[in-house]
Amino acid sequence: MTKAWHHRFAGLLLWALVAAAGAGW
C-alpha cells in the first residue's frame, strides 16, 4: 500500500480515538 494511504488511514484512526475519548470511553 502507498504511504499516502497509510497516512490517511492513520488520521481516521486518530479521529476515532479522539471521538471515543470525548464520548467518555
Structure class: mainly alpha
- Approximately what portion of the residues adopt beta-strand conformation? under 5%
- Residue-averaged pLDDT, rounded? 86
Sheet with the most strands, sense and barrel status: none
Number of discrete helical segments = 1
Q: Which residue ranges are poorly predicted, with pLDDT under 50 across at least 5 consecutive positions?
A: none
Number of strands: 0
Q: Which radius of gyration do the C-alpha atoms yield?
A: 11 Å
End-to-end Cα distance, whole Å, is: 31 Å
Helix and strand run = H
Helix content: over 70%
Bulk shape: rod-shaped
Could you please describe the fold and organization of this structure?
The longest helix is centred in the middle third of the chain and has 21 residues, at 3-23. This protein has 25 residues and is mainly alpha-helical. The chain starts with a helix and ends with a helix. The protein is 84% helix and 0% strand. The protein has one helix at 3-23. The mean pLDDT is 86.
